[in-house]
Amino acid sequence: MKVGIVSLGCAKNQVDAEVMAGILEAAGHVVTADEYEAEVVVVNTCAFIREAKEESIDAILDVAQMKEAGKLRRLIVTGCMAQRYESELMHEIPEVDAYLGTGEFDRVAEVLAGLEKGMAGAGTHRVPEPVLVYSHETPRRRFTPAHWGYIKIADGCDNRCTYCVIPSVRGVLRSRPKSSVIAEARQMAAQGVREVCVIAQDTTAYGSDKKGGANITSLLQGLDKVRGIDWVRLMYAHPAHITDELLDYMAGSRKVVRYLDIPLQHIDDGMLKLMGRKVSGASVRKLIGRIRKRMPDAALRTSMMVGFPGETRDAFAELLRFVKEAEFDHLGVFRYSEEEGTPAASMERKVGEGLAQERYERLMKAQMKISEKKNKARVGHTYRVLVEGLSSETELLLEGRAYFQAPGIDGVVYINEGAARPGTFADVEITEAHPYDLVGRVAG
């Protein structure tokens, strides 16, 4: 059967969708990028914040309409929404044939076969506590370009931040064996992958659920030795778990790029305590100093949250000052989303949506000036760039990324002079700067 997969949310969710695609293909199905020609559509949902839930519901309803119109035989919903709201969704959207939670998406081909055979109960396979972790032996079809991809090194989370539903929908931290991660990296290198992005809910907690096992530093040491991989990029690093050992290794590594994605959420001590972040404002500032002392050229990405219950004018003012002082290379801002069942949902001193929006805009405006300043400082310098191919903006330009640009979330380098093949590295001299993107020419 032709199966289309709609994957929403984060990169971790995308890996789950890629695994489902591999499992479906191994079972003899054809995975198509065009959901309108599919006989079956799998909607892999996100439930992290309100906007993500709304997007997931809209996607399910769009596909349900296709089914009602007779263009589709089966609709399967997977992921965090299915894990968290299966009972409600079954009542509200009867067009869905099956729901699979975050711990059973590997059964997608089995469930589809059961549906086709008319087996009783084929559409009910949600488990209360996810335990699944995929391995290098699990079939997987990557949706990323041939030259880069994600490696999910763990699933679940033990941090229990007061605003977050991830532990309730993803379960406790479950680290993959180091040998499995390395084996998958070798497989990807054999397929032509040059850059791997290491992901998990908390990459720096990797191995802490195992006694005497690997940690994130020893895992990076193993990835450093994989032939064919040129860049290893570390994403989703919790500030409480970034050690000097990790920073020292990154500073001397041949392949681990000097880029850290560290979701900080806030800098005010009161806010950090209410959020359950396990760090203080002082420790965060010391961490930024430790990173920049060891790696002065390190690129730092972070995310901040505004509008959390109890965020006073002074707390936000401190956050704004910190953002201006720290001068992050990349920064994303979230408006607090109240999620039922979390400790934060019952907190008092709510912040109005209008005020949260105003604070969001002020932070983003401040960051835009910082990004433009940093990019202007790069004009005249030459960087090694991984060439992606023709630009998504215009076929007249090539597009690539330097070490300080993660795929899909940061800016890009537009190449307007010189030639280079997609999937290769080129030395590019920066000639022009914009707030989020750069323009350059192939050197020499």
Give a verbal description of the structure.
- With 444 residues, the chain is of the alpha/beta class.
- The chain has three domains: 2-116, Methylthiotransferase, N-terminal domain (Rossmann fold, 3-Layer(aba) Sandwich), CATH 3.40.50; 148-376, pyruvate-formate lyase- activating enzyme (Alpha-Beta Horseshoe); 382-442, OB fold (Dihydrolipoamide Acetyltransferase, E2P), CATH 2.40.50.140.
- 34% of the residues lie in helices and 21% in strands.
- The chain is built from twelve helices and 18 strands.
- The protein has helices spanning 11-26, 50-68, 80-92, 108-116, 166-170, 178-190, 216-224, 244-252, 269-275, 281-294, 313-326, 353-377; strands at 2-7, 30-32, 40-45, 74-79, 98-100, 148-152, 154-155, 174-175, 195-199, 231-234, 256-261, 299-306, 330-335, 382-390, 398-401, 413-417, 425-433, 438-442.
- Strands 6-9-10-11-12-13 form a six-stranded parallel beta sheet, sandwiched between helices.
- Helix 11 (313-326) runs parallel beside helix 12.
- It is globular.
- The mean pLDDT is 92.
Class inferred from helices and paired strands:
alpha/beta
Number of helices: 12
Order of helix and strand elements from N to C terminus:
EHEEHEHEHEEHEHEHEHEHHEHEHEEEEE
DSSP strand tally: 18
In CATH's first tier, which class of the largest domain applies?
Answer: Alpha Beta
Please sum up the structure shown.
By secondary structure, the chain is α/β, with parallel strands linked by helices. The protein is built from twelve helices and 18 strands. The chain folds into three domains: 2-116, Rossmann fold (3-Layer(aba) Sandwich), CATH 3.40.50; 148-376, pyruvate-formate lyase- activating enzyme (Alpha-Beta Horseshoe), CATH 3.80.30.20; 382-442, Nucleic acid-binding proteins (OB fold (Dihydrolipoamide Acetyltransferase, E2P)), CATH 2.40.50.140.
